[in-house]
Here is the input.
Amino acid sequence: MAQLWGGRFTKETDQLVYNFNASISFDKRFYKQDMLGSMAHVRMLAKQGILTEEEQDVILAGIEGILKDVECGKLEISDKYEDIHSFVEAVLIDRIGDPGKKLHTGRSRNDQVALDMKLYTRDEICEIDGLVRELLVVLQRLMEEHTQTVMPGFTHLQKAQPITLAHHLGAYFEMFKRDRGRLFDIYERMNYCPLGSGALAGTTYPLDREYTAELLGFEGATLNSMDSVADRDYLIELLSALSTIMMHLSRFSEEIIIWNTNEYRFVEIDDAYSTGSSIMPQKKNPDIAELVRGKTGRVYGALISLLTTMKGLPLAYNKDMQEDKELTFDAFDTVKGCLALFTGMLDTMKFNKPQMAASARNGFTNATDAADYLVNHGVPFRDAHGVIGRLVLYCIEQGKAIEELSLEELKGISLVFEEDIYEAVSMDTCVNKRLTLGAPGERAMEQVIQRNREWLEAHGKLVD
Ligand code: ARG
Here is the structure.
């Protein structure tokens, strides 16, 4: 047991209590952020005359040495310390002696951990944003390639109207674009430095909090010391944004799983991204898509868990908040893994164009257009709807598509039909006449693709 606070105690901590209380097994993840935060703190203390220049230099060199040794594996972060903060301070004192004892001047672990978690989370947001951007780049490429790949669009998972693959993928492009927007917003809102808030009530030392904030790349310092140590809102909104990313990935996965079935055969998942069965030799399973869909639950769980942890906490710091870490880290790892694998799977997936086009033709997806044809020839829409309903019924009985009927058969249903009906209900017409902004028609789609290309160029990395 190695802890920072033995002075007031007369008995050793029970070992089980110690283990239950300790956080080093998971907060060692932000060792680097902890040390960078300490270095900024020390620089500020020296600027304010709280530490001498010499003390500053010795402490900085000491922390740099620890950081280097941890990174190259020479120094192991031992679980015998209570948390990462205690580890760094103890090793520092061990290495440089008395000046090391001044590191924690004007600071509490409460503002320190608030800072570390923010620094770590900022980096994770950037990484996750980068991965969403890579997914958007792949989607953009596929959209450019598939503005003429006709497929059925669905409502209620029933064939509805013909669209293109570019249009279908474009829906996901919009979702992931909004996901990035949420990450940008959260980053901006959370980017204020809590360091210098002390345990809860600031400190009597003349700290320059704005200076520390600036050294660490924050927009400024937080404005209430109690809020600074008690705020986990930014994690909650981030977990909500991550849950939404997972929800989008999960919907997309579900579609890929359906498209990959023997019945649909719209796609073929690359061998590198599928798995076999131990018993059924013919199987090629969409496990990656299923796992992404499955892992969504973990991320939702993290969000609900943290909301529940926070709901009854009086101000300011409470140890309950230590529970913010493991589940958030797990959510970061899960989202990053899922994004990377999903993007790889999508990037290598083959689309079966003839099969998609045949599916669009076989499901009366042009029935609305047939009704519109009648409307354009003076039939009121409600009547046209009824006529085409009868026409579809006739087609089902005959086992034919609308365009496979002879003009004679068509006229048997409505005398309004003329030779130009065939052109009007062709897949090409059905798709390419839909030219409202955001619709699947090729020209409309190209306009949107161009706008999105510009958006991607304007929104490179979150932080340069
Ligand atoms: N491990 C703690 C946490 O994650 C650090 C802060 C400890 N502060 C305290 N007063 N015990 O929240």
